[in-house]
């Protein structure tokens, strides 16, 4: 079954929502970005550098539950320096995109899955779960207010970043915070690859691990990313673009690449099959990963979850059995891997161009997201 959520039929994604939601207090900005300035940003948004005019905030306390849901102007947060998030890093985030369709309407992709993942992360971090419908309503309220910020260039989108922080003012570390703030901000984003999709080089990190059994690897917890910067910096020092994370025990089982899940293509044409590392508890259960596992069989490419070591990866490429490897995630969609380097080994995959299977899966996924292909899975969620 693809992904830890089970191979749920599309309908489940819509029904499996806790019913609670709130009325949002709408306080729109009186000083919106002038249209000409906004259009200049949208012409070249880069990635994660510009933010829209509004944000959504919702508060939580152990006594009152979720309350005080607002749309308000995007602005710095005033926080007590003793807030627990600054000291004990109780922070979670999610990431998904809003896509403009040819008719001008706006959709998101599998937002209830992001909500469910945030709640799984929350359980691991002893933080409160947010009703799935409230999570999705928060996205909708923000995208409706900032709909002019959703780019209409194919490949561009509005990246939505929901996150939750512990705001309790206390330095005691014997219990989790009792108050939290959930926020959604939005950032117009361009194509991840400005010069077209080019295979990246990756570094097999043995000095650093991203996640250990029993740890926080399957949660989308900010601390996982803080701990990853040193490994990524090492990859860059080694002349590589991204770091490959190996298992923490034997340092040989492949887990993820940078902040993406990894896919291995064996064979080609009608014999092509896909393998991705299974969700052992130390990998992030990516929504793109899950979508690939569901799309591939419908394109005649069998797909399975399993285990692959660095030795098997190298031998598979050298024998020609492994024909393509790519990372996948919301931001980059797919990122082909062209070259692998470690302390004692190095090898190449393919001919320096993105592989056929990788590009087919990418086209199919983008087609569904931008509405140029049918969506038999019920993944697309109209938002504005
Ligand atoms: N793995 C990690 C560590 C990530 O941070 C991400 C992206 O957020 C992914 C995988 C891909 O997840 P998704 O496809 O849901 O974006
Ligand atoms: C993704 O969305 O694919 C990511 O890798 C998110 C990242 C910016 C943390």
Give a structural overview.
- There is one protein chain.
- 43% of the residues are buried.
- A hairpin with a 2-residue loop joins strand 11 and strand 12 (260-266).
- The two termini are 32 Å apart.
- The chain has two domains: 11-189, D-amino Acid Aminotransferase, Chain A, domain 1; 200-367, D-amino Acid Aminotransferase, subunit A, domain 2 (D-amino Acid Aminotransferase, Chain A, domain 2), CATH 3.20.10.10.
- Mean pLDDT is 93; it is low at 1-19.
- The protein has helices spanning 10-15, 35-43, 84-88, 111-124, 132-145, 222-226, 229-237, 287-298, 310-319, 356-370; strands spanning 25-26, 54-61, 65-73, 91-93, 96-100, 106-109, 157-166, 179-189, 200-204, 242-246, 254-257, 260-266, 273-277, 302-306, 322-329, 333-341, 346-348, 380-382.
- Helix content is 26%, strand content 28%.
- With 384 residues, the protein is of the alpha+beta class.
- Helix 4 (111-124) packs across helix 5.
- The chain contains ten helices and 18 strands.
- Strands 1, 2, 3, 4, 5, 6, 7, 8 and 18 form a nine-stranded mixed sheet that branches.
- The structure holds pyridoxal-5'-phosphate and 2-OXO-4-methylpentanoic acid.
């Amino acid at each position: 079954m693809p992904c830890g959520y089970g191979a749920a039929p599309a309908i489940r994604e819509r029904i499996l929502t806790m019913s609670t939601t709130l009325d949002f207090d709408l306080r729109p900005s009186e000083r919106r970005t002038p249209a000409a300035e906004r259009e200049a940003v949208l012409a070249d948004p880069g990635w994660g550098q510009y933010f829209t005019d509004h944000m959504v905030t919702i508060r939580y306390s152990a006594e009152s539950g979720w309350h005080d849901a607002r749309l308000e102007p995007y602005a710095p947060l005033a926080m007590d320096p003793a807030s627990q998030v600054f000291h004990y890093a109780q922070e979670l985030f999610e990431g998904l995109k809003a896509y403009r369709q040819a008719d001008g309407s706006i959709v998101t992709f599998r937002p209830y899955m992001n909500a469910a993942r945030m709640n799984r992360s929350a359980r691991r971090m002893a933080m409160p779960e947010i009703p799935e419908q409230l999570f999705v309503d928060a996205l909708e309220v923000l995208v409706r207010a900032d709909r002019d910020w959703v780019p209409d260039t194919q490949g561009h989108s509005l990246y939505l970043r929901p996150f939750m922080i512990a705001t309790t003012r206390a330095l005691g570390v014997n219990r989790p915070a009792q108050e939290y703030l959930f926020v959604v901000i939005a950032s117009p984003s361009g194509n991840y690859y400005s010069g077209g999709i080019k295979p990246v080089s990756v570094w097999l990190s043995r000095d650093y691990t991203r996640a250990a059994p029993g740890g926080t690897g399957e949660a989308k917890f900010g601390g996982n990313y803080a701990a990853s910067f040193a490994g990524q910096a090492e990859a860059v020092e080694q002349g590589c673009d991204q770091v490959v994370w190996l298992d923490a025990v034997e340092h040989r089982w492949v887990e993820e690449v940078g902040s993406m899940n990894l896919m291995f293509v064996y064979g080609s044409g009608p014999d092509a099959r896909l393998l991705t590392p299974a969700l052992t508890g130390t990998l992030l259960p990516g929504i793109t990963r899950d979508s690939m596992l569901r799309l591939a069989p419908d394109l005649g490419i069998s797909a399975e979850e399993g285990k692959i070591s660095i030795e098997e990866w190298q031998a598979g490429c050298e024998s020609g059995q492994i024909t393509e490897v790519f990372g996948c995630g919301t931001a980059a969609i797919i990122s082909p891997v062209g070259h692998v380097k470690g302390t004692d080994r190095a090898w190449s995959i393919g001919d320096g161009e993105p592989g056929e299977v990788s590009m087919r899966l990418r086209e199919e996924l983008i087609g569904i997201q931008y509405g140029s292909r049918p969506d038999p899975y019920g993944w697309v969620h109209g938002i504005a």
